[in-house]
Amino acid sequence: KGMELTVIDFGATITSLQIPMPNGEKTDVVLGFETLEDYLNSFNLPSAPYFGTVVGRFAGRINNGSFSIVEKNYQLEKNHGNNHLHGGKKGMSKAVWRMIKQEQNSLCFEHTSFALEDNYPGELKVQVTYLLTENNELKITFLATTTEDTIINLTQHSYFNLDGNSSDILNHKLKINSKLILETNEEQIPTGNFIPLENHAFDFRNPKNVVAGIDHCFVLKNHTAPAAILESVKNGLKMKVYTDQPAVQIYVGGKTSDELLNKDSVEFHTESGICFETQVFPDAPNHADFPNAILRKGETYLQDTTFEFIIS
What we know:
By secondary structure, the protein is mainly β. The protein is 2% helix and 42% strand.
């Protein structure tokens, strides 16, 4: 129905998602850069934005970069203070993926992360498929297999702004189908406890304006209802997020260096966009009561997330 998706093979990165509007124009609802060079250079920033990339092998933080599988200990690279973040210094976001299938309404990319790459066990083969439907949906499917038992937590890291690139996200309405968030310490590592959202500033069970400073893991229970709904008051565009994952890490951000050329030459800031990182819990391998993040040899990892756009 006129939706248009642009992806590059660097990081299997979504660089543009154009939504047709009633006035005949299209709104690009994801943040990004104008050039490949700026996507590359963004990873040299003190805090890389990961605009539109696939994040893995493990999205989010792992405490001390260490974990165990069947009493065998593994030490990952510490690339964020004393912890491991978003797959390490190399990671899937900085890999060149191979496009293995292209159809009129879908693209499929594949990447192989070799054994002990970023110190992860097993050779991990990952496919990501981006599919546009006639219902104005972007469906994202991950599939992965491994040669040894390993850990995995993949996500898509697009920053959304339903008004386009020219404003902030704080005038959007947000609803999140969650009663709990993970409690974290000062390094944003989960403590193992949960915080009820009753009377909490981040209780979005009823729609309200996006607030600055969100970078939290919201626990999901009902996978038939949308995990989250984002709505622009300005143009009436609404986005529903569906996922089969146990959580969504929601992050409000977008600030980059003045040296990088953002799309439309707009100066991005800390409230330019919002991420819906569908995933298992951060640091899940180190908490026995958290959802499973171990992929066994012979098993297949599958993940489905859908972004549905409703134009009023």
